[in-house]
């Protein structure tokens, strides 16, 4: 495979596999092929081996129940053809390996996986034994890894839904944490990055937008709150969802101050 280049797997948002400057991403149109389903499933389960029975159960190959081994071999060959576009399709040294009825991701390539990175950074951000600045840095880096929801454009499946729920909950927890860490560190420079990530992950999440707006107004960042409010309003323009009037957020802040709470 020549000189070693970093292999990256993106699961948070649009699924993609890259090596160096080469990248292959899932098609945005048309029905999801079985070869893409196989590749995504294996990348989502990057830390373990997967047997034929599990793949048969999790990836329903309609009409192929009587010849599942051959069907899987065909899917494997086509998945490797996808990986060939980034030089990772080799059956011995590529990304997707098979042997003795087992499939696994080649750990020798040391792939950088955004979901695994997010897991580690989230643990650091939540570690109260660390300083606020270190935790804030980890929190912002974790939030920045989210290009969208977990396997955002994949067809509905049980495994993807479970993992999507996990990372949705993680993103919400990071969002609750980040503004508190900004306050403790007196460092609000990461606000634009946080706002951009929220718009990518939960563009129609009214509760999330409400949290961000309250945090910005509470930090006396009214101009930033107005900009964010406008961006959300534009994103929701073609939906039935609406934010409360902006003035109501200001009233809520005044009410908290009058009750002796933080602005």
UniProtKB/TrEMBL annotation:
GO BP terms: regulation of DNA-templated transcription
SUPFAM superfamilies linked: C-terminal effector domain of the bipartite response regulators
GO molecular function terms attached to this record: DNA binding
Superkingdom classification of source: Bacteria
Protein's name in the database: Bacterial transcriptional activator domain-containing protein
């Amino acid at each position: 495979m020549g000189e070693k280049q970093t292999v990256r797997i993106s699961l948070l948002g649009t699924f993609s596999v890259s090596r160096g400057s080469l990248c292959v991403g899932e098609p945005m149109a048309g029905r999801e092929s079985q070869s893409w389903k196989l590749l995504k499933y294996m990348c989502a389960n990057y830390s373990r081996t997967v047997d034929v029975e599990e793949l048969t159960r999790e990836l329903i190959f309609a009409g192929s129940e009587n010849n599942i081994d051959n069907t899987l071999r065909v899917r494997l060959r086509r998945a490797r053809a996808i990986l060939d576009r980034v030089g990772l399709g080799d059956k011995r040294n590529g990304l997707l390996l098979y042997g003795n009825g087992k499939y696994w991701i080649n750990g020798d390539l040391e792939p950088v996986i955004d979901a695994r990175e997010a897991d580690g950074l989230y643990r650091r951000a939540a570690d109260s034994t660390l300083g606020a600045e270190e935790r804030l840095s980890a929190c912002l880096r974790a939030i920045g890894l989210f290009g969208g929801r977990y396997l955002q454009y994949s067809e509905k499946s049980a495994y993807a839904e479970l993992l999507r729920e996990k990372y949705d909950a993680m993103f919400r927890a990071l969002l609750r944490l980040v503004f508190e860490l900004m306050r403790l560190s007196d460092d609000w420079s990461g606000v634009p990055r946080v706002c951009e990530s929220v718009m990518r992950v939960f563009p129609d999440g009214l509760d999330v937008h409400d949290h961000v707006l309250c945090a910005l107004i509470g930090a006396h960042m009214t101009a930033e709150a107005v900009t964010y409010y406008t961006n959300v309003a534009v994103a929701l323009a073609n939906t039935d969802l609406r934010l409360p009037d902006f003035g109501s957020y200001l009233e809520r802040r005044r009410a908290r101050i009058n009750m002796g709470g933080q602005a």
